[in-house]
Specification:
The protein is α+β, with helices and mostly antiparallel strands. It has helices spanning 13-26, 37-43, 95-107, 123-131, 146-154; strands spanning 3-7, 49-56, 59-71, 76-86, 114-115.
């Protein structure tokens, strides 16, 4: 088995969006994915959007996505990992590890920290990240939708 990892380009927009949809469906979150191929074509042209695609023997196996953004606590930038997704037939074959290591290679020259969140019920994710040496801290993620804060502003 040969794992190849490369940076996604705008021509990969549909493939990445398809995998994002698969991940969202797996997490029962598909309804929240409103991005379109044209959005992803633009994202993949931006230098602060990092998407790496893994292929195994020519078949697309997964991706990792991250955003380079300011990290105000440290006075520099960080890579904020958005998604790590490996398609089911390729799980437990080292694809996720190789994607994470490829992201680390991008971060290493500037020693950028890499941060991310994961759901409490994602026990397989916890085990995976612990195996690669990640420091895990329990934290609750919150989001405030435009509809919700708009209602508050009208009160």
């Amino acid at each position: 088995m040969s794992i190849e990892i490369r940076r996604a380009e705008s021509v990969d927009a549909e493939t990445v969006l398809t995998m994002l949809g698969e991940l969202a469906a797996y997490q029962d979150q598909r309804v929240y994915v409103t991005a379109e191929v044209a959005d992803w074509e633009e994202f993949l042209e931006r230098p602060d959007v990092i998407v790496l695609v893994a292929s195994v023997d020519g078949a697309v196996a997964g991706y990792v996505s991250a955003l380079r953004r300011p990290y105000l606590w440290v006075g520099g930038d960080q890579l904020a990992l958005d998604d790590l997704y490996v398609r089911k037939p390729f799980r437990d074959a080292g694809v996720g590890r190789q994607l994470m290591l490829a992201l680390a290679r991008i971060a290493l020259p500037e020693r950028l920290p890499i941060g991310w969140g994961l759901r409490l019920e994602n026990t397989a994710g916890y085990r995976f990240y612990e195996r690669i040496g990640a420091h895990l801290v329990t934290k609750t993620a919150a989001s405030w939708s435009a509809d919700a804060y708009e209602r508050q502003l009208k009160e």
